[in-house]
Amino acid sequence: MDDLRCKFGHHPQASACGYEGYLFEISKTFQTLLLLVWLIGYVAIVSADDRIELEMLEQEAFRAAVERVAPSVVQIETVGGLERVGKVLLGTGPTTGLIVDPEGYIVSSAFGFLHRPASILVRLPDGVLKPAELVSTDHSRMIVLLKIEPDRPLTVPEIVPAGEMRVGQWAIAVGRAFDSKQPNMSVGILSARNRIWGKAVQTDAAVSPNNYGGPLIDVRGRVLGVLVPLSPHSANRLAGYKWYDSGVAFAVPAEHIFKTLPRFRKGDLHGGVIGIALKGKNPSIGEPVITACRKDSPAAKAGLKPGDRIVEIDGKKIARTADVKEQLGRRYAGDKVSIVVLRGQQRIEYQVELEVRDWGLGIRDWNPVFHLDSNP
Amino acid sequence: MQILFDHLAAVLARRVDSKPPGLSRRKLSAGTSLTARRASTAAKFFLFALLVHTCSSHSLAAGASTAEVLDRIQPNVVKIYGAGGFRGLEPYQSGMIVSADGHILTVFSYVLDTDQITAVLADGRRFEARLLGADPRLDVAVLKIDAAELPHFDLGEAVEVDAGTRILALSNLFGIAIGNEPASVQHGVVSVKTGLAARRGVFNSVYRGPVYVLDAATNNPGAAGGALVTRTGQLVGMIGKELRNALNHTWLNYALPIGQLRESVEAIRAGRLVAARQDEPKQKPARSLRLEMLGIVLVPDVLERTPPYVDHLRSGSPAARAGLRPDDLILLVGGRLITSCKVLNEEMEYIDFEDRIRLTVLRGGELVELDLQYSANGEE
Fold first, then answer.
1. Which residues of A touch B340 (CB under 8 A)?
2. Is residue B52 located within the same domain as residue B155?
3. Which domain holds residue B156?
4. Are residues B141 and B128 located together in one domain of the fold?
5. Does the pLDDT of residue A23 top 60, yes or no?
6. What is the CATH number for A219?
7. Which of A37, A81, A210 lies at the smallest CB-CB distance from B250?
8. ipTM greater than cut 0.85
């Protein structure tokens, strides 16, 4: 956890700072305090403007936050590719990416790569242009991992540990879609945590192709998550896009991205599927009783049977269908989970290894009957 | 109160421990974090004093001053009614009073294409408005109503702002303020200040200058001509017409900086319209450079966005001599991104056949730059 908290990359000037830098910082602090004293004097005289002064301070904080993350926010251009996916006309970018590794790994939103470009170019904040390779795609969270060969170590941003996030805190969405030299920003709050089965956080800041792939940051410039179009109602690749700039937007938590990075570098990640159907159509009141196990599915292989009532997943109590989805929806194929079921009076524990859903067509993505293909 | 502390501490902490950027936190923890802590303690003390002061001397009317700002400037924004009303063309837009004797700045649009333009003030007073003049290159117009001592914005006092500036947008979006009532107010921040002409064909707009992109849904039917102001009520810009970004198909929320419009407005008011100071879109030359002239043959253009790979080169041609090779992917021409064969051919039309051009190509994972020039004297 600690190393996640200290995610500062190498910086060319890092070694140049010692005691003198420290003195410099102190003098800066005094300057700030002097400014503050002046400010208070001013406010005391014109106290009707107190609220405005607070707003100005907040404005300064927003700017400072964006400035702080900016060295890790890159612009991405694509060449070639499809014109549309389904009925949706796709853009040609530019889109935004976030540096996650000093050696050249960059994450972005899969939305900017749905047109399967022939070539990808990354423009670093210092203006240097680099060709990029698409390493892998996280199909469950719609994130892509790119790799460039940088000339010197890149700046990795500081992140906010998931446990520190508070609903209502400032959340600033940052992109680099208009101008490669300066980031674009929109301001909102953190609307919710643990959305879409725990896969994302929610914000009301304006989020669109103008900042998909960019970071959602806190007022200190630390990364809360990476902005992606997602929807709790559909796993369609374009789901969530229709909500652009609507006040409903999602970001995949930065902590998750850094944790899964070693695995993500090795290849694609898919939502894990168990292959069961549960009783009832409404997940919020449905009972977690298995009505069917798909042939050859992880559930069937493990030994789960129709009629079993799920009571526990990985130690978490299960009461409703929605609880099952919440426990499984965020998992990847290859993840192992322990599932405790009640068969008659008997409690049985099974180990199930989730798989990629490969039986594909014929199942509506979020049909509650089959909702436990767990890739909502 | 805690929020206030947090924010000030954040500003201070930023000043203290963000410089130099990228320095490891561990290295700083001994000295700077302590300073940061002291700074934030001091900040808390001062803020506490501040709050005691303001709470004791004032009623706790939170947001009173934003409301006061709006009380002051809302009368400067007017609703304009004119032509339209069919096929999705709303017969209304917004405007702002820019002189005490009734000059109104607004966008130049079909709404003004009638003899009967009505301006309705925030207090409900209605005036017949006359189109004094328009600058079609900036899409701005100035109307005149016969009135005196009107509340107004002074264009000379308009300010320039940066990304992150908190703003208020006042307009009659969607024609909601249908009665004797002021226009609507929205809030947000300036997302970025950028040029509309950064890439060719992205925005179908007459105006090509810089704009303030906003993070609020300001640019809706009827909003064009509305005012963009800072949270202290300083005029910043005029809300523009609805525009769609052709690159990513999203609607753009933006305002035109007043500084870009001032000269035209003054000229129209004075009865002399001068050419606006702005960059004309680049004209195509009389004789354009073509790929054949350089000896470049691309792969067949069979897809919607065929990547512009070099298929082969005519031997001895300028491109061959410059070192271009088959299978090179052409990415940039003179710094402009080329996303397909089609875009490459379009871009060439803007280049004079005698000009030297710089190509950036992708070759085996590396970017390679080449300078090419057509020579009319033939090839060796």
1. 79-80
2. no
3. 62-281
4. yes
5. no
6. 2.40.10.120
7. A210
8. no
Residue type, A310: I
In tens, the pLDDT along A268-322 reads 999 888 888 888 777 677 788 998 888 888 999 999 999 999 999 999 999 888 8
Is B380 domain-assigned?
no
Domain of residue A297 covers 276-373
Residues with Cβ within 8 Å of B215's Cβ and at least 6 positions away in sequence, in order, are: A173, A185, A186, A187, A205, A206, B188, B189, B190, B191, B253
**Chain A from 151 to 210: CB within 8 A of any B CB:** 155, 158, 173, 177-179, 182-187, 205-206, 208-210
Kindly tell me if the per-residue pLDDT of B69 is higher than 60: yes
Domain boundary among B42, B60, B78: B60
pLDDT score of A50 more than 70: no
Instruction: Quickly count: other Cβ atoms within 10 Å of residue A3's Cβ.
Output: 7
Residues A315 and A202 in one domain: no
Chain A CB contacts of B332 under 8 Å are 129
Q: At how many degrees (to 10) do helices B32-57 and A19-45 cross?
A: 0
Please give the distance of CA A14 from its chain centroid, rounded to a whole number.
Answer: 29
Whether A80 sits inside 8 A of B39 (CB atoms) is: no
Same-domain pairing of B186 and B256: yes
Indicate yes or no: CB of B331 within 8 angstroms of CB of A79. yes
What local confidence, expressed as pLDDT, does residue A322 receive?
84
The residues in B 243-262 lying below 8 A from A, measured between CB atoms, are 245, 247-251, 253
Residues B185 and B331 in one domain: no
Q: Which of residues B100 and B138 earns the better pLDDT score?
A: B100
A269 CA: distance to closest CA in chain B (Å): 25
Q: Is the pLDDT of residue B7 over 80?
A: no
Domain boundary among A226, A246, A269: A269
Q: Say if the Cβ atoms of A185 and B215 lie within 8 Å.
A: yes
Q: Do A191 and A230 have their domain in common?
A: yes
**C-beta of residue B319 within 8 angstroms of C-beta of residue B313:** yes
Interface of B with A in 286-305 (CB under 8 A): 303-305
A92-140: per-residue pLDDT in tens? 678 999 999 999 999 999 988 888 888 899 999 999 999 999 999 999 9
Question: CB pairs below 8 Å between A and B: how many?
Answer: 255
Q: Are A230 and A141 in contact (CB under 8 A)?
A: yes
Nearest CB to A25; choose among B19, B245, B329: B19
First-to-last C-alpha distance (Å) of chain B: 79
Domain count, chain B: 3
SS3 content of chain B, % helix, strand, coil (to 5): 25, 30, 45
DSSP state of A294: -
B120, B79 contact by CB (below 8 A): yes
Determine contact: A28 vs chain B, CB below 8 A: yes
A314 reaches B (C-beta below 8 A): no
Measured between CB atoms, does A109 come within 8 Å of chain B? no
What pLDDT band is residue B86 in, cutting at 50, 70 and 90? confident
